[in-house]
Amino acid sequence: MAKEKMLQFVDVDRQMPEKRAADVRAQDFDEIYAGYAEAKAEEQASRCSQCGVPYCQAHCPLHNNIPDWLRLTAQGRLQEAYETSQQTNTFPEICGRICPQDRLCEGNCVIEQSGHGTVTIGSVEKYLTDLAWEKGWVKAITPVTERSESVGIIGAGPGGLAAADALRRQGVKVTVYDRYDRAGGLLTYGIPGFKLEKPVVMQRIEQLEKGGVEFVQNCNVGEDITFQEIKEKHDAVLIATGVYKSRGLNAPGVGAKGVVRAIDFLTASNRKSFGDAVPEFDSGELNAEGKKVVVIGGGDTAMDCVRTSIRQGATSVKCLYRRDKANMPGSQRETQNAEEEGVEFVWLSAPKGFTGDPVSGVMVQKMRLGAPDASGRQSPEVIEGADYVEEADLVIMALGFEPEDLPTLWNEPELQVTRWGTIKAEFGTHKTMMDGVYAVGDIVRGASLVVWAIRDGREAAEAILNDFNASAKVAAE
User: Does the keyword Mitochondrion apply (predicted)?
Assistant: First the structure.
């Protein structure tokens, strides 16, 4: 009977949850996809082919047991499906919303390769976890025994929170130090509500707090507390700061008023959604309303900026990217959503400088794709004599992020970094060269995906516990 529930991809077409009309969703910051109804979730899960080598699972950084929880969903065993999904994923409701499934699990689905359209894995995952919260299946963190050890975690983003969850469940005392007034890192202040509504994040923070995780907010390490003080207070320290230093552009006029960083623009918008007082937004400095907006960049952050600008009431929104659509680093699904909402993409275009102060335009160089570079992607080349000026009242730089100079900021020269400025840490254990200090997420990898940070946090928690147990064993002998 169970087998008959599956392999329905020949008879059942792929169907995403209903997406709100572009002209409607562009008026607010609510998520654009509705949730599945139970029958639709079961139907879409039944399309899974239950293949012997599940490429969806292999290409998921967390190696989620996707075929298993799809089968359980198709059979209507929804609580079991949720419990299976959360065994390997600390925040499945977040991954279901913001993971680039088209590049990971869904992009490697076997039935997608055979022309039948991928299973809607992310949407089923989101459905299961939202249902779990609604039904009370998400259990409070209640360690069986309390341990004597404590861990200090620097950074309350996805990597730090995933480690905090795993450590606290084993009875370890956990304190999270974070520079912002709310935990969540980029989940809270970097990603717009139309991709990840903030109550979804806040309920997880609340769960961690109720489970005994202590949060120290508005805490800048190196200013409000030294790294050494944190190290002395705890048996182990995990660095999970992420990368927040925006890549700049060395071009004429870059310092003009109206040329802003993506992180500042998105943080102001997200703060506004919480009801905070945001003077830079109210003054118009970080507000796109009534403006001609140009966003520079082609990644997911650039997509967040263009779609936020539309919702704030910009008169026009253009995205400049130096390669073509096929070579964009961001999600194709996000690009499509942006186009539907009225964003104009100006492909093969790069900024040369800016006119006016306040800014009045972007000097644009037209490009063509030449020979492949070291990564295999075609390198953009300037087309001489094809420059022009793109009118703009607000220019948002979304060129990516780099690590801050932590050894200098924290006065810790022993903290070893790579030539890119990321922290050196062992693969798998996430140990740094400093005794009792570990590091995870973007501060080790460079700017990457939330799902990789979650994996790193879970792995580091396991390594820290192993080291605690080994030390306890030696002490007992």
Answer: no
Mean pLDDT over 381-400 rounds to 96
pLDDT of residue 81: 97
Burial of 164 (0-12, 13-18, 19+ CB in 10 A): buried
Q: What are phi and psi of 72, to 5 degrees?
A: -65, -35
Domain end residue (candidates: 87, 102, 135)? 135
Q: What is the pLDDT of residue 1?
A: 37
Looking at residue 353, its pLDDT comes to 97
Q: What are phi and psi of 352, to 5 degrees?
A: -110, -20
- Are 20 and 131 found together in one domain? yes
> Does residue 427 lie within any of the structural domains?
yes
Rounded to the nearest 10 degrees, the angle between the axes of helix 121-135 and helix 78-88 is 110
**474/238: higher pLDDT:** 238
pLDDT of residue 3: 45
If asked whether residues 379 and 256 sit together in one domain, one would say: yes
User: With contact defined as beta carbons under 8 Å apart, do 364 and 339 qualify?
Assistant: no
The amino acid sitting at 120 is T
CA atoms within 13 A on the CB side of 414: 8
| CATH number of 268's domain | 3.50.50.60
Report the pLDDT value the prediction gives residue 52, as an integer from 0 to 100.
86
In the predicted model, what is the mean pLDDT of the chain? 94
Q: Is 161 left (phi over 0), alpha (psi -120 to 50) or beta?
A: alpha
What DSSP string runs through 1-59?
-TGGGS-GGGTS---PPPBPPHHHHTTS-S-SBPPPPHHHHHHHHTT----SS-HHHHT
User: What phi, psi does 19 have (nearest 5°)?
Assistant: -105, 130
pLDDT digits (tens, 9 = 90+) for 21-49: 999 999 999 999 988 888 999 999 999 99
Rounded CA-CA distance 29/237 in Å is 37
User: Which residues span the domain enclosing 210?
Assistant: 150-243+403-476
Tally Cβ neighbours within 10 Å of residue 314: 22
Write down the residue that tokens 């809270």 correspond to.
188
Same structural domain, 171 and 286: no
Inter-axis angle of helices 450-476 and 158-169, nearest 10: 40
